[in-house]
Amino acid sequence: MDCKHCVAELYRADSAKLNDEAFVREALANAADLANATLIDIRTHAFEPQGITGFALLAESHISIHTWPECGFAAIDAFTCGDKTKPDVACSYLAATFEARGHSISVIDRGSPKILSNSNL
After folding, report:
1. Looking at the chain, which terminus has fewer C-beta neighbours within 10 angstroms, N or C?
2. Do residues 35 and 85 touch, judged by C-beta distance below 8 A?
3. Average pLDDT per run of 10 along the chain, which is 121 residues long?
């Protein structure tokens, strides 16, 4: 089983979308689906005067987003374990959905339970 951790930053994204709680919830659900992950629940919180934090709980782990609409910025974290999950696809989808005019995406291979059980850690 593979575990992958995708970290993304979105720059110059659509401020209205970054501040729309319903849009963020829908985007997280779609990202989970595109990543071939099993969505368990989504939680979001809207801050005053602006900004959203959202968390998609997955059977395979999670996808989170924190938005700063006033800066057109969002920070995304997608962590999944499983041979079929694609957190990088989720991050790319979110960059496109929030219409980021710039973004960075890093994918980190994480220790899998199989590797850890065979190590001397």
Report:
1. C
2. yes
3. 93 98 98 98 98 98 98 98 94 98 95 61 53
